[in-house]
Amino acid sequence: MQIREGPARRPAPSAAGPLRSPMSAMMLAMFATMASFYVAGRLWQDAQNRVYLINELDRRTGQGQSAISVDDTLKVVACRQQAKRLASLEMELAAAKHEGFVGKYTPETNGTHSKKQPLIVIGIMTSFGRKNYRDAVRKSWLPTGSMLKKLEEEKGIVVRFIVGRSANRGDTFDREIDDENRSTKDFLILDDHIESDEELPKKTKSFFANAAETFDAAFYAKVNDDIYINVDTLSAMLETHWDKPRVYIGCMKSGEVFSDSTHKWYEPDWWKFGDGKSYFRHASGEMFVISRAVAQFISINKSVLRTYAHDDVSVGSWMIGLAVKHVNEAKLCCSSWPSGAMCSAL
């Protein structure tokens, strides 16, 4: 029987597949290159369009002259962060000093003479027309002349009467204070503060800020000009608080918040203290002490620290949000003169 032959079979392709021609590879490379150029061109064009639109928006809205740019905003943010960091470093430095890195009375060379760090700066709050009170202080516990300088050099105690300026700058009140200061040299005059009974909280804030900038002391105290101080007892007490870099010392109290505008101690912001209308714990205004780190905090943040009707409440409010050690010191309750007290009403 005749067998019919089928169609001839084609040979199977090799495992490596058919070889591509050089022309196909070149075309693929050219296509990829052109695609890259196209994408890059579109990205560049989009960027240029965004720049144009931003400039046109600034031109039409006038923001080009008045708005703060992104760079300026970042600079402001950076400055605020640096200010916070500076405040933190200042407080850490003060803590290091208190912990012994700098001696309590280590001489610091300044030019050709040695200078001791003051233990405390005492600011006596006074005002116009109270020369009799200042003279009573000078005759009772505050030395004058060379003895005042000796108190500073030997005991590290700096004492200054604190007063602002008259609303009518250069009038009789200002001249009287200037004349008295030329004679006694025991004033710290706050040129940035207008003297007024209603502005005592701001005056206290200005004192701490100026004192921290002027004197590199370990402690700063606010005292009324009708208070007698035993400086030796005060020094001994402060020696026990060197291990507390952030300290707030005083006769701690609370008390009622008065909402009656006719009351002597009326508080316009009474509603902020809650339904109980009771103040938080704070040091009595006759005399209280803060450490250097706290005074530096006040100096750095003086423009944003809120004041209330009374200076002792104002200072106490600043301490609430800080890691500050509150020390209730009965010897600073100046209304009486018990044994071992540091202050008393004259």
From TrEMBL:
Residues 23-98 form the DUF4094 domain. Its main location: Golgi. It is found in: Golgi apparatus membrane. Its cofactor is Mn(2+). The keyword Transferase applies. Gene3D superfamilies: 3.90.550.50. Keywords: Glycosyltransferase, Golgi apparatus, Manganese, Membrane, Signal-anchor, Transferase, Transmembrane, Transmembrane helix. GO terms for molecular function: galactosyltransferase activity. Signal peptide: none annotated. Belongs to the glycosyltransferase 31 family. This is Hexosyltransferase. It comes from Paspalum notatum var. saurae. The lineage of its organism: Eukaryota, Viridiplantae, Streptophyta, Embryophyta, Tracheophyta.
